[in-house]
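lol ok so funny story. i was supposed to be doing the assay writeup but got distracted and ended up predicting the structure for this chain instead. priorities right. anyway since i did it might as well share w the group, maybe its usefull for someone
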Amino acid sequence: MDLNEIKNRLEQMNKQTSNNSGGGTSLFFKPSVGKEVVRVVPNKYNKQFPFTEMMFYYGIGSRVMPSPQNWNEKDPIQEFTKQLRSSGDKENWRLAKKLDAKTRIFAPIIVRGKEDEGVKLWQFGKEVYQDFLNMASDEEIGDFTDITEGRDIKLTTVGPEVTGTPYNKTSVGPSLKTSALSSDENIARNVLDNQPNPLDVFKRFTFDEVKAALQEYLSDGETQVSTTTTTTTAASTPAPTNNYSLDTNKTKSKAAQFDDLFSDDSSKGDDLPF
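and the output, tada:
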């Protein structure tokens, strides 16, 4: 083992971490209550579109879990929810909705007044995303990411005392005047060249890891599913909250029911890799 090579590699990784996180500051930007100004910068990894859409599972497993769909890979939870919805059972529809991945959007930004911290990732939901898309489609605003004639973005964030929820809420709007990304060519070049990639930031869970997390979730919740499709009627007795069953004739273990739903039996027409 070459210790010099190890030291060189460690130094390279430290430099990369410093570049990606603004010299040791947080990789992510989180708006503070009040007013702030940021600039959405051209996406190094997608020249045509500044935003990255990613899907995450919340409450399945011990932490937030990115969906394998983000990397164009098969997702066992997605396949599972398809099976649930195809059953025609109301309780299974509810479970499918609960299991659905949630979309989060990431934008590479710099914070005005803190340009020396480098590019950060701002994570937001569909409401802010819609506002950005509306801005982008407005011909009077134009390409707000343009490095010479783009626009800064003004943020206004209110806290729980205003929203009436445990969460802050941020609204966005374009600056009235166009401006350059930076008057310093070196800063502009650094911003364009050194950006964190959202797809590299999060752990990439394997198909089997996601499947295991789903199995554990179903077992912990005493959730029961099966493979027989039935039609619910108005006279049906509501099932307990955590008892989702499509089969009223016989009961299988949850593990067996789960595996049945993902069986690669050719009669089901599914092509799943386990």
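The beta strands are 28-29, 34-40, 52-57, 65-66, 102-111, 120-124, 153-158, 169-174. The longest helix spans residues 3-21.
back to the writeup now i swear
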